[in-house]
Amino acid sequence: MSAAGSARSRDAATTLVRRLAACVRDAGFDPERFRFASAITLAAIGALYFAFLVNLPNTYWALLTIPLVMRQQSGATVWRSSARLIGTLSGMVVGLVIVAFFDQNVFAIVAVLSLWLFAMGVLARFEMGSDAYAYGVAGLTALIIVLDTRSDGGQAFSYAVSRSTETVIAIIAGFVVGLVLLPRSTLPLVRSSLGEARAKVFETIRLAIDRESEPSAEMQRGFTADLRTVFSNMRSASFERTSPNGSLPRMRAQANALIETLATAEAFSFALAHAERGDAVPQPVEEARRRLAKLFDDLGEGEPDAEEAEERSGRFAALRDELGETISAYAFAEEPDADKLDTVSGLYRVRQLAARLADLYAADAAVLDPKRTFKTVKPTQTRYRDLVAALEIGSRPAIAFALVATFWLFSGWANGRVLALITGALSLLVPTIAPRAALAAAGRNIATGFLTMVPVALLLMVLLPHVQTFWEFAVLIGAPIFVLFYLFAGGPQLPIAIGGTIMLAIGLQPANTPSYDAARLINTGVTLSIMPVLFVSAVTILFPNTTAHVRRHLKRGTDKLFRKAIRRRLDEPGFFGQFVDLLGDYGGDLDVDDETNRRLIGRSRGVALVVHEICGIRNSKGTIPEHADRRLGEIAEEAARAGPQADLSSLLDRVEAVGHDARRRLATTDDAGNSAAFRTVMAAELLHAMIHQRRLCLPGKTT
């Protein structure tokens, strides 16, 4: 080697060392990272030990499974492991069926596998979290059984049994470590995410009470994303052992109260910020607002205990009851004038916010004191099932696999089979475990993990033939795994650790009778390094995550949920469960510095307010006047279809007519039957303001 070449090699090595040193320095010592890296390492070693013990033919599969099923919290580990097992068994059955029916026709096999990947991608998009991961694993397992056995029916069954056994071994090892040796409950994470969501909701309340401004698109997107995280963490926590009256059901009630408070605060903010008949807020409303602000200011900064939370609930409840009496004093015996209507509307919004805060602090007290009773609520969040997005996501792995498999068949390249398998599998699997906006970055990070571990694997090939015991082997294999997950366990860097572990497992293929082959390792490294390029190409070319793409899905999803709620095909909890998922998913990918994006997010939140108001009418006592809920819903739908320059005067007239009918009903019924009519008057007032401000209109071009 020339002197110049030696210098370049030294410079490259020095740069790599400096980067690794920077990673170590940035990581510092983090006890939680240390615990998780230790758990992954122990589970990997345990899985290999048991796989060696039963002498399975592909023991490295157990090592491949560990980084994909082990999570930092015990509940998430159980959820992911259950999904992995169900997906493996389902994929095994389908793979055996494909081999049985198409073992003589390789082109038919490629076509059927492409359809299977498409179906799994569609179904995965209909689920969330590790429920979606199960479909990804089902697609992966069928690919492995069919392609790795070359469609050999005699070999496929034993291969499928071995694959399933390795998966079970890895899951058991993960459970022993994650649930027994180093457990970590998900409930603290639920509390933390609830606290973050609560802080943003309270910031919205502060702005509303002080009449400073309405919540910005950034805030709306932020607290919706936080609520989405809360529900995902609750789903993980549901896999842990909790008593029926334990913390999780109480936190679920707390989250439900938080959503109600948020919707009420937004309605309060909008109603007081956009009074149409004059700039001045009526004096009784201003006095009520100041009293609410005083109660809110007196809350202080610290977290209350159960007694203090109950006391706070009582204060807000007292204001609620007093304002209820004040509102009742404004009789509707005659057609009220504009000032009177403004006063009643404003007092009602203040009262509603006080009532929701009372409910929220009562829910807080029930969480802090397990002896207190609480209102049980069913799990709120469900996946918004976007059919168009599902078809797109299902098409991506199917097309990617079909293209690479076709190249493999016509080129005759030996590693083309492996490349087709991994490209199709990861195109299906990665979107089930990584956010949509981070898919390309996840592919690049997986490639980084592959390349980082090639020299480490080569070094291990030199050292491993000289070890005499399993524990020496465990130290050599476990050390790089520990370092990977200690340095890269956090957030978007996790795919680096996963990619590095995959390279170690596939490159070394540890077994009872090892056969280390440097040429095979290099060949594997080259093949795997091509895969991320193909994966990134698939996610950036096939249905790319552009702004126009996200806008279309957000608009269409908002309109679909709106129609279902207005037509009573979706109740209020069902609507908000799917709405949180919709806006948290698509809204999180939009740049709120863009005016169109801000208006589109605001439109979606406006739709949610309308649904909240209409459901309030339906849930009230008494007869709904003249089908007012349906009429207001139809008017709001028309406003939501209107363009930015549309004439909305006829819609405003129709809203006023609904309000007039409700006021007439209010004047001719007794107090017991007034609730639905009164809520209709208030909803009509709010919808009138929203249409007047064009809050529901399309922001212009959304493509």
TrEMBL record:
<feature type="transmembrane region" description="Helical">
    <location>
        <begin position="496"/>
        <end position="512"/>
    </location>
</feature>
<feature type="transmembrane region" description="Helical">
    <location>
        <begin position="446"/>
        <end position="464"/>
    </location>
</feature>
<feature type="transmembrane region" description="Helical">
    <location>
        <begin position="133"/>
        <end position="149"/>
    </location>
</feature>
<dbReference type="Pfam" id="PF04632">
    <property type="entry name" value="FUSC"/>
</dbReference>
<feature type="transmembrane region" description="Helical">
    <location>
        <begin position="387"/>
        <end position="410"/>
    </location>
</feature>
<keyword id="KW-1003">Cell membrane</keyword>
<keyword id="KW-0812">Transmembrane</keyword>
<keyword id="KW-1133">Transmembrane helix</keyword>
<keyword id="KW-0813">Transport</keyword>
<feature type="transmembrane region" description="Helical">
    <location>
        <begin position="36"/>
        <end position="64"/>
    </location>
</feature>
<feature type="transmembrane region" description="Helical">
    <location>
        <begin position="416"/>
        <end position="434"/>
    </location>
</feature>
<dbReference type="InterPro" id="IPR006726">
    <property type="entry name" value="PHBA_efflux_AaeB/fusaric-R"/>
</dbReference>
<feature type="transmembrane region" description="Helical">
    <location>
        <begin position="169"/>
        <end position="190"/>
    </location>
</feature>
<keyword id="KW-0472">Membrane</keyword>
<feature type="transmembrane region" description="Helical">
    <location>
        <begin position="85"/>
        <end position="102"/>
    </location>
</feature>
<dbReference type="GO" id="GO:0005886">
    <property type="term" value="C:plasma membrane"/>
</dbReference>
<feature type="transmembrane region" description="Helical">
    <location>
        <begin position="518"/>
        <end position="543"/>
    </location>
</feature>
<feature type="transmembrane region" description="Helical">
    <location>
        <begin position="108"/>
        <end position="126"/>
    </location>
</feature>
<protein>
    <submittedName>
        <fullName>FUSC family protein</fullName>
    </submittedName>
</protein>
<dbReference type="GO" id="GO:0022857">
    <property type="term" value="F:transmembrane transporter activity"/>
</dbReference>
